[in-house]
């Protein structure tokens, strides 16, 4: 690293201590848990099954079965990222009928409850972030924000403030209403039966198909999704706003198809890229939406201007921004030199 950059990081550290203290959301008050034992047992069994499925995936399954599991990971992942998250919860772009149908199918393979319910919880997560009205309030710790919130009854604040979320836009979509109405039939078919059966077409056993392409793939996608609520609210940098918990994390982004740039996403939730720098290797969802836009299935892609981002980085960022963070550091160096 060149010497001027080393000095720069030191100055950043020094100058940070002289700045106003960063405001971090307070930890939540103690609460009484109403554990839902049915969910505890189901999730424990699923995770045990997934460990066995992971073993079969690595050691026993046919190559075609392994590839199919990865294909299902990408499809069901897009059903969450490009569908439930960027299209339905945030409306960061618009989609024509064929794409809405495709994403609903992908979303059902992911089994994270109906897209209507997913989007309702997610809108609460953004509006009431890090409070008890946020379903996976990250101030309650890693475990709660990762999976614990699915093992207990929801906080009364969620139900009390739930009416402030307008869902009329999504309820007006007949495809989403259809998915919710028939979820109890569609979900087992898409998430478990189809993934178990298809590998038998190339000679795989139903047993391997079930544990590899249904159970292991499902639990894997669940856990990487949950990492956005847990790890991406905990460990990483905050180039856009240092006063909130969400962070930028490339390792998470790699496995969640581009959803790990969470500091940016909480500051600019309407950007269809959910990130500033569109590095395709870390943002497969952006590549997918761009491709859909090229064939005319996606349109009105929303993004944020460079000027708006730059202003925000300079006003509330933690100084780690690749471009304007360094400028801030250089200014601090200049200031320090002038004082000396
Ligand atoms: C799953 C979801 O895993 C994961 C979501 C993760 C989100 C991540 C976001 C990160 C950003 C995107 C990154 C994507 C990366 C993807 C990468 C992919 C490669 N507003 O829920 P109930 C009211 S699901 C307003 O039963 P309980 C409402 O009246 C896994 N009102 O509460 C409701 O009735 P209704 C599979 C609300 O009884 C009533 O309360 N699914 C709201 O306390 C009752 O609601 C499961 O395992 C709201 N937000 O039960 C199921 N919420 O619905 C797990 C509730 O009729 N869930 N109300 O209107 C459950 O079993 C239960 O929900 C419970 C709570 C036990 C957790
Ligand atoms: Zn978040
Ligand atoms: Zn979001």
Automatic annotation (TrEMBL):
Annotated Pfam families: FA_desaturase (PF00487)
Residue span, Fatty acid desaturase domain: 63-269
Listed GO biological process terms: unsaturated fatty acid biosynthetic process
Keyword Iron: yes
Compartments, as annotated in UniProt: Membrane
CDD domains: Delta9-FADS-like (cd03505)
Membrane topology, record value: Multi-pass membrane protein
Keyword Thylakoid appears in the UniProt entry: no
Membrane-crossing segments per the record: 40-58, 70-89, 182-202, 208-228
UniProt comment concerning the protein's domains: The histidine box domains are involved in binding the catalytic metal ions.
Family: Belongs to the fatty acid desaturase type 1 family.
Name this polypeptide is given: Fatty acid desaturase domain-containing protein
Annotated organism of origin: Leptosia nina
């Amino acid at each position: 690293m060149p010497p001027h950059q080393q000095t720069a990081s030191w100055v950043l550290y020094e100058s940070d201590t002289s700045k106003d203290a960063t405001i971090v959301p307070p930890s939540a008050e103690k609460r009484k848990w109403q554990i839902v034992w049915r969910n505890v047992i189901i999730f424990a069994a699923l995770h045990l099954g997934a460990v066995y499925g992971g073993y079969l995936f690595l050691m026993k399954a046919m190559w075609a079965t392994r590839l199919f599991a990865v294909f299902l990971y990408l499809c069901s992942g897009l059903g969450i990222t490009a569908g439930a998250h960027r299209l339905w919860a945030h409306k960061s772009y618009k989609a024509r009928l064929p794409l809405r149908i495709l994403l609903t199918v992908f979303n059902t393979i992911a089994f994270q409850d109906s897209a209507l319910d997913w989007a309702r919880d997610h809108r609460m997560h953004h509006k009431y972030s890090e409070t008890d009205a946020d379903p996976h309030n990250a101030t309650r710790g890693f475990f709660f924000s990762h999976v614990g919130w699915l093992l207990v009854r929801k906080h009364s604040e969620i139900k009390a403030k739930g009416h402030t979320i307008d869902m009329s836009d999504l309820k007006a979509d007949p495809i989403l209403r259809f998915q919710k109405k028939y979820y109890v039939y569609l979900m087992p078919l898409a998430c478990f039966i189809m993934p178990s059966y298809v590998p038998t077409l190339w000679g795989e056993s139903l047993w391997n198909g079930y544990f590899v392409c249904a159970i292991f793939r499902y639990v894997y996608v669940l856990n990487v999704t949950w990492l956005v609520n847990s790890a991406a609210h905990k460990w990483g940098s905050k180039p856009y706003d240092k006063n909130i918990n969400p962070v930028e994390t490339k390792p998470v982004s790699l496995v969640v198809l581009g959803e790990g740039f969470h500091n940016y996403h909480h500051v600019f939730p309407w950007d269809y890229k959910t990130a500033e720098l569109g590095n395709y290797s870390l943002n497969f969802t952006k590549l997918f939406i761009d491709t859909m836009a090229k064939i005319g299935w996606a349109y009105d892609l929303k993004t944020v201007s460079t000027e708006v981002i730059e202003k925000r980085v300079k006003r509330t960022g933690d100084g780690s921004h690749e471009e304007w963070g360094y400028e801030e550091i250089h200014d601090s160096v200049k200031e320090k030199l002038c004082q000396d």
